Amino acid sequence: MRSKLKTLAVALPALMAALSTAAAADPGITDKTIKIGMFAPLSGPNAAYGFDVANAAKMYYDKINKDGGINGRRIEYILEDDRCDANDLVAAVKKLVEQDQVFLLNGGSCSAATVAAKDFVVRNKIPLIMLNASGDGALYPPTDYIFGAFSISQYAVGGAMINFAEKTFGVKRLAYVNHDDAYGAWNLTGAKVDAAADKVDLAVESVSPTITDVTAPFLRLRASNPDALLIVTYARPAALLIKKAREMGFDKPIILSVTGTANLKQLAENVGGKGALKNLYIQDVLADAPGGPKIKWVYDMYKAAYPELAKEPDHPQTYMPYGVPSAEAIVRALKAAGPEPTREKFLAAMKQEDFDTHVMAGPVKFGPEERAANKSTVFMKYDGSSLQMLPGVYTTRWTYKN
Amino acid sequence: MRSLALLVALAALVALPFATTGYVVYLANLLLTFTVICLGMHLVLGEAGQFSLAQAAFYGIGIYTSGLSGAAFGWPFPCSVLAAGLVSAVVGLLIGGLALRMRDIYLALATFAFGEAMQWVLMDWTSVTGGPNGLHIAPARLFGLQLLTDKQAYPAVLVIAILMLGLAILLSRSRLGRAFRAVRESEVAAMAMGVPVKSTKLIAFALSAFFAGVGGGMFALYSTYIHPDSLGFQTTILVLTMVVVGGLGSIAGAVGGAIVFGLISELLRQTPSYQEVIYGLILIVFMMFAPKGLFAFLGESFGRLRRA
To answer: Which domain holds residue A104?
Structure first.
């Protein structure tokens, strides 16, 4: 009897401990696998911002699996199309979390749509590691669960572009065109901080992403007699503005943000040829020109992972490498979370990340109150056929104030 | 037979949250919301024959009214949903007073312009709407309880959808509904029969806005965020497509169109490479083989089968 009691006394706490561990185990993780839910625009007009970006993250996970996985676990991913639309993105996120039971989310290429998922993931304590959305609206004020801006924070882009224009061309008056949406508003906030610091006057025009005639905003900007033109729009308004600048004989430097460079070959055609690009500078966030020696490994990996797709025209898409840093950050944090990872351990590891991705111009760096991965950017000269990297890495003086 | 089908459908809707995941319930909430918006489109276009393209704008007014009133005054959700419908209806009445001086394509263009202007207002009235940053919607409340999940919001969404469906049926069968159809068929003949054409069209327009506004209030029950980007012309076209595909002029068509087309759209999300092609093909097939709408097509097919 006594020996039975003794056995029970030993077995009961062990059983309770086992049960409590089982109860505490997060969804999406087994002894053999870790399930990651991915989402990106895979169809429609915004697919250029996410299709190959998601492919890049997938190929990185495949490589990790090939190398033995993370602490003996293989990565399983499920990819959903969010169409860059808030309702569709929320549907994708809810499907991944509630139906597919993923451990964490890795997705979002469109900022406004991605912000729509914020309250759901925070309320349900699901880690959301954005793909390439700037997503500043979900990063400030910081939460424990959302990390993003792996391409770059829009606050940083705005400030860095002013910084570059002032240092490179000594400008005192700048014409600045952004979008009349959240993306544009974040960018302008950063730009204003650096313009004030550098004593640069800004003439601002905010245009719709679907604008079809830029004559009026361009004439208003030209009237301010600017030393350079800064464009932080998507590709279509950017092409219209550059074309209009040529038609109106505007020969001062034009500095275009990376959002307008989805297809550089197409840009050269849309602006009416190389003549319009004589004085064009492009902001970018990669460590090297696309395909350059520093980031060649990403393009090689893409060709090996998707040999058929790589043969198609316009592939890999311009933003393809942006998919790697978030996947790198996730893999590092999962490794750091140890052999028995939980969502809380993973999130704690994410907050401490500070590493060079070997893809982007700056490091991925988070902190106790910092959820935007990248704030560094570089600039290149583009003449319609080739890209020439310019020296220096630029950032903003904007900081988040609670 | 019809009563049995309705009972089965109702039982399935009641059982849904107990048998499925939150994701499925979210889809159900969204489909029920669009059902109500489609019922509004049915009233103004299908019943009264007025080509209004402002449904997304009224839906947006409903979302913002509900979200803002809930946050500012702490109203329980029945009040904020009702406020959403009423504010949309008042705006609809004002806009209708101006727009309904026009007909056909001119009316469509005027209401389209209003929709675009409203999206601009929502985007630029930053101090109230959050502008381009969007608006975070506080959880809906009732008697101190917060609706924090899709499953918690679902009963409220379902009850409101059923009430709105009942209201649409009542309206359709009422004297007003007959006046709507008389105006649709011939304004001159309606006038000769003593139907006050101008006020009838205005009422149809305001009722349509009310339905869309209530739809907005329903959205605010289970959604936590709204951005003006979601309230553009694309949303109006989606609603119009649902009503036309379901069957213009019939309540069953509006309800069925919203559900079938909403489900097709969500299912196509699983096949990203081909979805645009499949979506286009479905529309072409519907227009070619079921121009009167899905439900009229099904009814005729069953009729033929029965006769055979």
So the answer is: 33-152+291-371
